[in-house]
Design goal:
Layout: H1 2-8, H2 23-54, H3 57-64, H4 77-93, E1 99-103, E2 112-117, E3 123-128, E4 134-137, H5 141-152, H6 157-181, H7 198-212, H8 214-228, H9 230-241, H10 246-254, H11 271-280, E5 285-292, E6 300-306, E7 315-320, E8 325-328, H12 336-349, H13 355-385, H14 391-414, H15 420-439, H16 444-470, H17 477-497, H18 502-513
Antiparallel strand pairs: 1-2, 1-5, 2-3, 3-4, 5-6, 6-7, 7-8
């Protein structure tokens, strides 16, 4: 009783608050957060940086060929039939007549695209006009290089997707462990110590950007992991539900597959198929047409049709070569798993809105990139403050941080003269050179300034050369605003290059005072 009375009589200031999480648990989470971040830091940084740029992937396609026609209105049924005929004829001429895609103009891209490919990896792509006539063969080395770097790291496709998927898992795990390692992170959401040491400034920037954009970070890392590990997930599904029959598992998720046969057959008319879908969904609009094993007796036709009000690109409706309905993918109104599958790509890349949505996604992606960069920088600064500087790793991390923008800018410059295959060589050469140069320089700040300055020069050169090449020929407005954006990015890098090293300045002032 006396103990109870004594406890109740204590003043509020005398009652010790129990921490939200046990200190040992927080320390374990912090250790795990650091280890996970350091192990995957370079990969996460590259994937985040290229992902930020990939938001504008379709715009980069347009920028590389700004003289290609844009759709001036809805594509009529007759134009779809003509594009199918012309696309198939061109695929036959290119010896790639297997699968044919038509991508109709949309908010994502205002071009009418005709694409074909085969199992051997050969492909071709054309821009068609409003009448369905093939006008310009697509040549977009920079866009293709960027897409493959972000999604596969230019590794063999299966391995590349798997590694990028694991990177998404590592990023998601790092986000969760980071939250658990900082119990006050939400309470201190607006605490910014700009007048303090560089490490404290980086810590505040790291934590604040991590909190402010947390929903975005979680969504992008989760969808990236699912997209990258899709093949593995389907393989597990095949083992668990279909006795190891991967073909059946793929068919369940991706729809029925066309039979492989060499017997010729007429290419079906898609107009009755579109009418069949619209009889049940009057607001559905045709987005894309996929002919599987075109012009053979086993061919199938997949129609992607979008109903307003849904986040997915559209729902897929399956038909055989005679126009008989074979079901649909349920990406808009199917089961929860089907609907999740439908929104993965739009949510991951921000391809569900206009230019404003893309800009927001790019800014949030840049925030994620900064969080990755500052996370390693904080760990290195903490070691230095403890008297255990890792100068070589500081220089190498600076080379990764600022060498990657330089490598990408160099590839954009080279893409004006060479194809995608050689861009991989340019990227690897510049990346290796930045690491070698960083290893031979004394200070990380020197590495930073040098690569920032070179990036500014490369970006400005890309904008000027591109403008010179297409001035008077470009009809696509994407050409002008991307060139302008490149010049602004060049100016930003130049300003960063001439920014004084605040930490070094403070150290010099301290020595002078002593």
């Amino acid at each position: 009783m006396n103990e109870m009375t004594s406890s109740a009589g204590r003043q509020p200031s005398q009652v010790r608050k129990r921490p939200l999480l046990p200190p040992k648990f927080v320390q374990a989470m912090l250790a795990g957060h650091s280890a996970l971040g350091l192990a995957f830091a370079a990969l996460i940084y590259i994937v985040c940086l290229t992902g930020t740029l990939s938001v504008f992937l379709h715009d980069f396609h347009r920028w590389e060929q700004p003289d290609a026609p844009l759709a001036s209105g809805p594509i009529k049924t007759e134009a779809i039939a003509e594009a199918t005929r012309a696309g198939h004829a061109q695929a036959v001429a290119d010896n790639v007549a297997q699968d044919l895609f038509l991508f109709l103009p949309s908010a994502l891209s205002p071009r009418f695209l005709v694409t074909y490919f085969n199992d051997a990896g050969k492909e071709g792509e054309w821009v068609a006009d409003n009448d369905g006539r093939l006008v310009t063969r697509v040549v977009s080395p920079w866009s293709e290089f960027l897409a493959h770097l972000h999604m596969e790291l230019h590794l063999p496709r299966t391995w590349g997707l798997f590694i990028v998927g694991l990177t998404g898992v590592a990023l998601l795990s790092s986000l969760i462990s980071g939250l658990l390692a900082h119990p006050r992170i939400f309470k201190d959401a607006f605490a910014l110590r700009w007048g303090r040491s560089k490490r404290l400034q980086q810590a505040d920037l790291h934590n604040r950007l991590g909190v402010w954009a947390l929903p975005f970070h979680v969504v992008v890392s989760l969808t990236g992991a699912l997209l990258g590990l899709a093949t593995l997930i389907i393989g597990v599904l095949a083992l668990a539900a279909y006795n190891g029959d991967s073909e059946k598992a793929f068919a369940t998720i991706l729809g029925p597959r066309a039979a492989v046969t060499e017997e010729p057959a007429p290419v079906p008319d898609v107009a009755p198929m579109v009418a069949s879908v619209q009889s049940k969904a009057p607001n559905a609009e045709l987005v894309a047409v996929h002919y599987q094993r075109i012009a053979t007796s086993g061919q199938h036709v997949n129609l992607t049709m979008r109903t307003p009000g849904h986040l997915a690109f559209g729902n897929t409706y399956y038909f055989d070569g005679n126009g008989k309905p074979l079901g649909d993918g349920g990406l808009e109104v199917g089961g929860i798993g089907q609907q999740i599958l439908g929104v993965l790509q739009p949510l991951h890349f921000g391809w569900f809105g206009g230019l404003g949505t893309k800009v927001i996604y790019a800014l949030l992606g840049l925030a994620m990139t900064i969080v990755t960069q500052t996370g390693v920088a904080i760990w290195l600064s903490r070691r230095r403050d403890k008297g255990l500087p890792a100068e070589k790793w500081e220089r190498l991390w600076s080379a990764v941080t600022w060498g990657q923008p330089l490598a990408l800018a160099a590839c954009a410059f080279a893409s004006l003269f060479i194809g995608e295959e050689l861009l991989v060589v340019v990227y690897l050469a510049v990346t290796l050179a930045t690491l070698v140069l960083a290893a031979g320089v004394r200070e990380a700040a020197t590495v930073r300034r040098a690569f920032q300055g070179l990036s500014a020069v490369a970006l400005a050169a890309v904008a000027v050369l591109h403008f010179n090449r297409w001035h008077g020929l470009a009809s696509d407005p994407a050409s002008a605003w991307i060139d302008g954006s490149l010049l602004l990015a060049a100016l930003l890098f130049a300003l960063l290059a001439f920014q004084p090293n605040g930490e070094a300045t403070r150290n010099q002032a301290a020595k002078a005072a002593l």
